[in-house]
């Protein structure tokens, strides 16, 4: 019986050791699963924030593009509006011009102004010329005369200061001599 006890005790001890080992391994597995779960949670959080960030940037870029497109559309609309207004004004001006021409063509002709004849013409002319205009004309005449006299005086002074002219006979003789030499060369 003593031997049996020892075998049973051995079995009991082995079982106790196996239970302890199993508990340690269980605790280790639990710890590893917790770590893996927290890592997965952290990764999911990071992925979520990354996706949210990308979504925000995409939304902002879409908004920007939409705003730019709206601005461009508004600008082109106002430009077209101005062009239409300009054409309408031009057309209205053309129509007004044409209407004026038609109106003038349809209206009775005005009689030409009666011409004055003979003595009436002369007296009317005399009345229009005022003393002021006569004085202006006289002053202008005096100025032109003075200018002409001054020009004549300066011309005469320049002519006196010049060298005396060469004798024409010498000039003519030189020309004939040149001609004669040319003929001989040819």
What can you see in these coordinates?
Helices cover 89% and strands 0% of the residues. It is an all-alpha fold and 186 residues long. The longest helix is centred in the first third of the chain and has 105 residues, at 2-106. It is elongated and about 170 Å long. The model has no long low-confidence stretch (mean pLDDT 78).
List the helices and strands and how they pair.
Layout (H helix, E strand, L loop, with lengths): L1 H105 L11 H11 L2 H31 L6 H18 L1
Give the N-terminus to C-terminus distance in angstroms: 170 Å
Tell the overall outline: elongated
What is the count of DSSP helices, taking H or I runs of 4+ residues? 4
Proportion of beta-strand residues: under 5%
> Which class of secondary structure composition applies to the elements?
mainly alpha
List how many beta strands DSSP finds. 0
**Rounded to an integer, what's the Rg over CA atoms?**
62 Å
- Considering DSSP H and I runs of 4 or more, what fraction of the residues is helical? over 70%
H/E topology pattern: HHHH
Mean pLDDT: 78
Note poorly predicted spans. none
Largest pleated sheet: none
Describe this protein with a few key phrases:
mainly alpha, 4 helices, elongated, single chain
Would you summarize the structure shown here?
This protein is mostly helical and 186 residues long. Helix content is 89%, strand content 0%.
């Amino acid at each position: 019986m003593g031997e049996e006890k020892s075998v049973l005790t051995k079995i009991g001890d082995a079982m106790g050791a196996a239970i302890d080992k199993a508990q340690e391994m269980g605790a280790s597995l639990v710890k590893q699963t917790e770590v893996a779960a927290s890592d997965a949670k952290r990764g999911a959080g990071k992925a979520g924030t990354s996706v949210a960030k990308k979504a925000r940037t995409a939304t902002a870029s879409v908004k920007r593009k939409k705003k730019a497109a709206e601005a461009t559309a508004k600008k082109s609309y106002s430009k077209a509006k101005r062009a239409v207004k300009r054409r309408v004004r031009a057309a209205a001006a053309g129509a007004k011009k044409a209407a004026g021409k038609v109106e003038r063509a349809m209206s009775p002709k005005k009689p030409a102004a009666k011409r004055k004849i003979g003595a009436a013409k002369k007296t009317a002319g005399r009345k229009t010329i005022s003393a002021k205009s006569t004085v202006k004309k006289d002053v202008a005449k005096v100025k032109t005369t003075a200018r002409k006299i001054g020009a004549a005086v300066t011309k005469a002074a320049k002519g006196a200061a010049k060298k005396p002219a060469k004798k024409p006979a010498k000039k003519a003789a030189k020309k004939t001599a040149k001609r004669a030499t040319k003929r001989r060369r040819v």
